[in-house]
Amino acid sequence: MESSRTCAETASGRRVLRADAERNRQLILNTAAEMFAEHGMRLTLEQIAKAAGIGVGTIYRRFPTLDALIDELFGERIRWWADHVTKLADLAVTEPWESFRQYVLCLAEAHDCDAAYAQLLIEPVTGSPRFRDDHARSLRGARLLLARAREQGAVRGDLHDADLLHIQLAILGVVGASRSLGTQAAARFATLTLEACRGPKAPNDIARLPAPSGDELQLLEALSGADSDTLGTAGESAPSGGEGRQLG
């Protein structure tokens, strides 16, 4: 039960957080979002509390597990993604190429906007049953979308389910390596990917490529910096497995 120090009753009887508790909640969410984007998802509540400058007890009162915190930050977005992919799979019945095109471009946009969210689209590290169910639903929708596009010749006949993961991993790598350049690397790579996947019955509407992500030297320098950042933060991450996901 919530303490009277952190909750108050409204006229309707609904319990709401007091101003100081709500400030702490927003501080936790904002700090966690920044840390997830920078260091990946395998953090601990203690690490997030330290970065936010609050006590461990404070973060546990709001979010008893890391799963609960991830659900709060990303649950609605993962649910939206599952719904969206399901709709694209339905669209693939009549417009298979357009459905596949939208899927790849949406993936690129997600990876370009939020690295943490992009990682969750690939591998949901949270233990929430609802979260895992939504992620599994998005995977089923993507496989159905691909099957329908492949059957109708909109994409290559030798394109397999595993290639959907390869596409996501490739986009994630391209975006991570070129993020510091502030370019449209994800959109450009997605367009190249679509052309590589185009089937014999896809519309002949080859898209114009977005601007390149700098020259070769700039990309190599950006990649070197990304590798250094990864090495520099690797020691701060929690160990893989359950230890980094649920505490206490």
From TrEMBL:
Residues 227-248 are annotated as: Disordered. Residues 44-63 bind DNA. Coiled coil: none annotated. Keywords: DNA-binding, Transcription, Transcription regulation. It holds the Pfam family TetR_N. One of its GO terms (molecular function) is DNA-binding transcription factor activity. The keyword Coiled coil does not apply. Residues 22-81 form the HTH tetR-type domain. Gene3D superfamilies: Tetracycline Repressor, domain 2. Signal peptide: none annotated. InterPro entries: Homeodomain-like_sf (IPR009057), HTH-type_TetR-like_transc_reg (IPR050109), HTH_TetR (IPR001647), Tet_transcr_reg_TetR-rel_C_sf (IPR036271). PANTHER family: HTH-TYPE TRANSCRIPTIONAL REGULATOR BETI, HTH-TYPE TRANSCRIPTIONAL REGULATOR RUTR. This is Tetr family transcriptional regulator. It comes from Actinomadura verrucosospora.
